[in-house]
Amino acid sequence: MRISIRSILVVFLFTSSLGFSQKFDEKQFVAYKAKYPDEQAIFLKYYQDVDIKIDGDSLKVNSHYTRETLHLGTQSNVYAKDGIYSSSLYEIQNISAKTLVPEKKKYKSIPVTEFKESYDKNSSVFYDDSKYINFFYPAVQPGARTVLKYQHKLNEARFLSSFLVQNYLPVEHSRYSITVDKGIELRLEVLNDLEGQVRQSKTDTGDRIIYTFEAFGVDNLKVEDKAPPIRHTAPHIMPFIKSFTTNGKTTNVMSSPADLYSWYSTWIDGLKEANHENIKAILNELIEPNDTEIEKVKKVFYWVQENIKYIAFEDGMRGFIPHNASYVCDKRYGDCKDMATIVVNMLHEAGIDAYHTWIGTRDIPYSYTEYASPMVDNHMIATYINDDQYYFLDATSQYSSFQLPSAMIQGKEALIALDKDKFEIKQVPEIGKEINLRKDTSYYTLMDGQVKGSGTLTLHGYPKVYNSYKLDKTSKIATDKYVTKLLGRGSNKFFVDNYSIKNLENLDSPIQINYDFRVEDYYREIGNKVYFNMNMEKVFSDRLIEEDREQPVEHNFKTLKASTSLLKLPDNYIVNRLPKNRSFSNDVVGFNIEYTLEENSVLLNRTFYVNTLLVMPEDFEKWNEAIKELNDAYRDIIILENTKT
User: Whole-model pTM?
Assistant: First the structure.
């Protein structure tokens, strides 16, 4: 029975409103407080027990969840609020929740009687049928235990998901079990269990098999800034139903990428070839007779980016099945699947092959070749192939050029639907640092305590994409503030007096910002000497990685930052001291700082690069060595001397 609640609903009542159960063991409570002195609460039990049965020519999948929390500290009431995720694909049944409050030597059981259903308020999703069933445990206090039990019916066996061994609280006993009829073939993987915490067992009961994974005394998840999502590093169980056999017939479920594609291809059947008059009318205006194929593809892609508004839409299987292109064209909005479909259909109408393509963003650490299942992807794009050159067209990335895949799919495997029965798995490249260039050229002088000058900043590749969201379609005041932040250098007394922006709407050209600036009270004049640090912009100076950090550091893209600064010497001044050139390089990060003395001026050329999307723990020392060397170079100053005094 599916839960349907619009405001507040009494879901479960114990037969007696209050009762006493279990003995309260004060010695055990004291022992847990000693074991976890810095924790407000711990999970005593964190269980998911899955049951899969063969039902005719299909499978029934049900899970039983148990969460028992022991409250240790005086502030543990922050965990009094709890909730359960539900949707049309994941139906929740038979919820019971209670607080066991210690009174003398026993626990008094106080049930939760009110459960409130609320829809996901995620503003990035226009419509989402997922919901949360929220509730509060009563009388939470040190020594109390809160207990939650519920069942979960999975309406599509292929959506069987992973189980995290760790959680936001320490876990005394984490357990995942999966019980199957004989005739069901599973593949079960334990990922990221570097310390060998997970114990595995298999029990044969005659007609059924039970696989159990357990861990004891599991530390809580450590949340660190700029770390990838937890499944990249946290130990977890990955279950796959490969096949099942009944009455001598074997049915494949998720045994290979071919099984996954066979299922996925049913969702796009006929969409590519559909004939739409409104699409034809747009193409007639958009495409010129002499356009090359590449020019046609580019025009279609840019038209979709500009004219179809991205709105996420998740409603059961509708979260996986696209609308047809005509519908998307009329509505002028759609989710990633809809935008991929209209790109594919428009190109097909123009006589050009393009292909629906499933892909996971970098949030997801899995690949199709290793783990072919819906756990691998969460996104759809279009792919165009020309002379073995693959163009991954993600129209949801509003400011990405035709040549540039969206940053969030770099390095990920794409599942390309070549035709009804044929597919290809192709890896999206990681875009090189040279393409993601931020280049700044500035000219300035020192006058009356101020640094005054002008410059040009150009943004290429992903720096152009990311900054376009802030520079385009915002108020003049907001843009002024952002440009000042973008160009900022020297100190908080940096001011942009004038600026202009070019190529913001031209996706094939870098953004160019021409500007005039001044920095007040930046250099020091003592006697006949001027002390001046030409490294006014200290890129990555604050990026040392903490010694106790455990998780990788994630970057949105590889990058190259280059700057050229030309200081015109004040009249009658010569260079008394010129800093030495500095450089540092490894395969992860590096820089080069070079000073050149010219007639009446000093030229400073600098480059800084990051050559990885993930700085792994084994590379932390390399990274920190570079940043320390960089910061040392930043401290070097130039000394000018007045020859007339």
Answer: 0.90
